[in-house]
Amino acid sequence: MFEQTFVDGVAKTRRPYTILISFLIQIVFVIVLVVIPLIYFEALPAAQLSTFLVAPPPPPPPPPPPPPAQAVKVVKVAPKQFDMGRLTAPKSVPKEIKMIVESEEPPSAAGVIGGVPGGAGGGVLGGILGGLPAAPPPPPPPPKPKAPAAPIRVGGQVQAANLVRQPKPLYPPLAKAARVQGTVRFTATISKEGKIDNLALVSGPPLLVQAAMEAVRQWEYKPTLLNGEAVEVITTIDVNFTLSQ
Question: Which pTM value belongs to this model?
Answer without folding.
Answer: 0.39
